[in-house]
Amino acid sequence: MSRTPKGATNQLRVIGGQWRGRKLNFTPAQGLRPTGDRVRETLFNWLAPDIHSARCLDLFAGSGALGLEALSRGASHCDFVDTSAAGLADISRHLQTLDASGGHCHRISAADFLDRNAGLWDIVFIDPPFGLDLVTPAAEKLSKPGLLAPNALVYIETGRDESLPPLPTNWNQYREKSTGQVSYRLFVVAPVENV
After folding, report:
1. Which Pfam families does the entry mention (predicted)?
2. How would you write 55-94 as a 3-class SS string?
3. Which residue, among 85, 54, 89, 88, has the nearest Cα to 72 in the 3D structure?
4. Is residue 154 part of a domain?
5. Could you give the CA distance from residue 107 to residue 82 in angstroms, rounded to a whole number?
6. What are phi and psi of 141, to 5 degrees?
7. Nearest to residue 17, comparing CAs of 55, 57, 65, 74?
8. In sequence order, which ranges of 59-189 are alpha helices (DSSP H)?
9. Residue 57 falls within a domain, yes or no?
10. What are 128-135's contacts with CB under 8 Å, separation 24+?
11. pLDDT given for residue 36 in this prediction
């Protein structure tokens, strides 16, 4: 088992928008794997028509790569949710360094955050640690009224060898791609008709 030297940092690069090219250090942690540059480039090409002024939610934020990229590309707001104090401290520092007033950090589990908050988020990023079956409970909670804006977009990243878990029936897959050990998909959430 390899160990990370004490005080070591890793780095991510913002790849588009107003902070394009900015390199941000984050504290390494077991299981932390920021979404790679090529995957983020593809994802944000998919999101380009919808990202401006969007309200975003970065569940299982980790390094904050997805939410920071969204803010850089014109999202108006992003909630970063994670249980790691060190990870959220890094994200808070990045938000301050970049003068990003639209970012807000929440140290809480994804499930508890969704139980306690209403948001009408336009775009949600679900990129949990692989192999822990965390996508299904997050999706179930997001399906409750008052959390997603009409026609919200939900991004899900999983390990390539993981099958996609059951999702709400009104989540329609819009895009899908795999690279390396990662599969990633974008869903459009259709409004649920009131009966």
Report:
1. Cons_hypoth95
2. EEEEECCCCCHHHHHHHHCCCCEEEEEECCHHHHHHHHHH
3. 54
4. yes
5. 5
6. -70, -40
7. 74
8. 65-72, 85-97, 110-116, 135-142
9. yes
10. 128/59, 128/60, 129/31, 129/60, 130/31, 130/158, 130/159, 130/162, 131/159, 131/162, 133/165, 134/60, 134/110, 135/164, 135/165
11. 77
Q: What is the pairing mode between strands 148-159 and 103-107?
A: unpaired
> How far is it, in rounded angstroms, from Cα 178 to Cα 180?
7
Range of the domain at 44: 10-189
Domain for residue 2, yes or no? no
Q: 60: which 2 tokens?
A: 């299982």
Residue 102, domain member (yes or no): yes
Query: CA–CA separation, 147 vs 149, rounded Å?
Result: 7
pTM of the model: 0.90
Of residues 25, 32, 30, 56, the one with CA closest to residue 43: 56
Using CA atoms, how far apart are residues 101 and 174, in angstroms rounded to an integer? 31
Total domain count, the chain: 1
pLDDT profile of the chain (195 residues), mean per 10: 47 90 81 76 96 96 94 97 94 93 95 88 93 89 91 94 88 93 93 59
